[in-house]
Design brief:
It comes from Flavobacterium ginsengisoli. This is Lipoprotein. Keywords: Signal. By secondary structure, this protein is of the alpha+beta class. The chain has one domain. The protein contains nine helices and twelve strands. Strand 4 and strand 5 form a beta hairpin. The longest helix has 15 residues. The radius of gyration is 18 Å and the shape is globular. About 2% of the residues have low confidence.
């Protein structure tokens, strides 16, 4: 199965059923770190694993593979060359991501992980929104479902050793337009039972967190914030937080 076809197939599974999205951010003292997003769509494998296996082609019932977005874009280089400079710039943000996919009809398992290293938290963006740019590779046909990841916000991160901030600035005009969009209603129905979890791991103990939903780890160096995926789409600023550290 070609990489782009596999990627689209994997996202299609994610959009068809309740899926758990888990975002992990690991930050070092110097501000470098690792970012990853895990998607677990195993529930659909429980319901229709054999049928899905038949759609994978190549007579494969199991897939366990790792690739990079750079490899995917190499497959689609002719299509990418026809896109606007702005869209090409958005896609380039994904090049460093490593994608690992495990699909097993026998184990009723669908797991996907996307990860990358960063030199500064300022480099981080909303990965699900950036993934939405992939629809432009097929002339506007979105392999991940209409509206996937597009919550009408601009996400930013900052870290100076004393304080960490995650802030989503919501575009109210986009939010209002999406509320009137029938396709947006369909996306809301599809993701109603999905969850979005963010986990932040720091090199220092945490003094306090602004988000009231944050749960501390035992060593107080990590926090977890969980919401429904519907909240992530409709109220992305609910996941905002300011984290201050002990001296």
């Amino acid at each position: 199965m070609k990489l782009y076809k596999l990627l689209c197939f994997s996202f299609l599974i994610a959009t068809l059923t309740s899926c758990t999205f888990t975002e992990n951010v690991y930050i070092n003292d110097n501000g470098t770190g690792k970012f990853s997003v895990d998607m677990d769509g195993s529930p659909i494998m429980e319901m229709a694993g054999d049928q899905i296996a038949g759609q994978m082609g190549d007579n494969k019932k199991d897939i366990d593979t790792t690739f990079t977005f750079k490899e995917v874009f190499q497959e689609k280089k002719d299509s990418i060359a026809k896109l606007s400079p702005e869209t090409q710039k958005e896609l380039k943000k994904l090049e460093s991501y490593v994608v690992s996919t495990k699909i097993s009809s026998e184990k009723k398992e669908f797991l996907m992980n996307m990860s990358t290293d960063f030199k500064n938290v300022n480099e981080l963006q909303d990965i699900l929104q950036t993934l939405g740019t992939l629809q432009k590779l097929e002339g506007g046909k979105n392999p991940m479902g209409s509206g996937f990841g597009d919550n009408g916000s601009k996400l930013s991160y900052t870290f100076d050793g004393k304080k960490f901030t995650r802030k989503a600035v919501v575009d109210q005009q986009k939010k209002a337009a999406k509320a009137q969009d029938a396709e947006g209603d369909m996306s809301k129905m599809m993701f109603a039972s999905s969850s979005y979890i963010v986990k932040y791991h720091f090199p220092k103990k945490i003094k306090k967190v602004s988000n009231p939903s944050a749960l501390f780890s035992d060593d107080r160096k990590s926090i977890t914030i969980q919401y429904s995926f519907t909240d992530y789409m409709e109220n992305p600023d609910k996941l905002d937080c300011d984290v201050e550290f002990e001296k």
